[in-house]
Amino acid sequence: MMSARAVLPALAALLSTTIAVPAMAANSTQPAIPGTYAVLRGAVQFQSATTLPDNAVMTVTLVDITTPGNPVPLVRTDFPALNAASLVFDLPYDPASIKPAHSYGVSARITADDRILLDSGDPQPVLAGGTDHPVVWVHGVATDAGSASDGVTGVWQLSVLNGEAVGAGTAITLGADGAVSGSTGCNRVMGKAAITGDSVRFGPLMTTRMACAPAAMKREQAFLTAMDATRFWRVNGPELVLSDATRRPVLIFRKS
């Protein structure tokens, strides 16, 4: 089993290299054939603070995603899932199996005792048409869509916008029927949210049209843009984390 370690600050240094290995690891789906293999190096990051059990396992899979809705796994390797903000992985694969006209992606899943704890969802594009050093976000898996969506309802005060802390003034109320209302810190906002499992789409959102100070107007625009980009949600204790299609958190609220 290959080891994982916390991601170093310079994620840009992650490279796709080529190494010679006598055989693939026993827990890999790649045939154990001696030869030269490429290594896809990337990182798995948690959407929010998560404590994993000691026996948690992270499985990283390289898949052919050429045919929509029918991903074909090429190679899969297990790593110990350590309690860290990020985990680096080195995923060996046979370059001869990569076809120029095909599309590829990498996905990650963390399990323990045959239970799925965290999952990346749709594969992150890699290699041709994607990156050679992917950052894959994993998020909690809802076991019951109805009860899961109940956890997102209530009044939420915005605390972090695009990675930066913000002051009081921006808040939303999410109703059990999907109704959205609140304040951008300048104007009133209202609309609907469509929630399915851990997926969410907001819109169209409507606002009043008051003029405010330039700083407030700038934050309002950034807030509305982030809401429009939101695709996933997760409640972590008192926090509601909204993330974009790449699982990157764009908005963090605190329960009011």
Strand content: over 45%
Shape summary? elongated
Q: What Rg do the Cα atoms give?
A: 21 Å
| Low-pLDDT segments, ≥5 res | 1-34, 142-148
Largest sheet: 10 strands, antiparallel
Mean of residue pLDDT values = 78
List the domain count as a whole number.
2
The CATH topology of the largest domain, please?
Lipocalin
- Multimeric state of these chains? single chain
Count of helices? 2
Fraction of residues in helix: under 10%
Secondary-structure element order, as H and E? EEEEEEEEEHEEEEEEEHEEE
Give the helix/strand class: mainly beta
Name of the CATH architecture of the largest domain: Beta Barrel
CATH top level of the largest domain is Mainly Beta
| First-to-last CA distance | 45 Å
What does this structure look like?
InterPro entries: DUF306_Meta_HslJ, HslJ-like_sf, Hsp_HslJ-like, Pilotin. Keywords: Signal. This is META domain-containing protein. With 256 residues, the protein is mainly beta. It folds into 2 domains: 103 residues, Immunoglobulin-like (Sandwich), CATH 2.60.40.2990; 108 residues, Lipocalin. It is built from 2 helices and 19 strands. The strands form 2 sheets. Strands 10, 11, 12, 13, 14, 15, 16, 17, 18 and 19 form a 10-stranded antiparallel sheet that branches. A hairpin with a 2-residue loop joins strand 17 and strand 18. The longest helix is centred in the last third of the chain and has 16 residues. The radius of gyration is 21 Å and the shape is elongated. The N terminus is likely disordered.
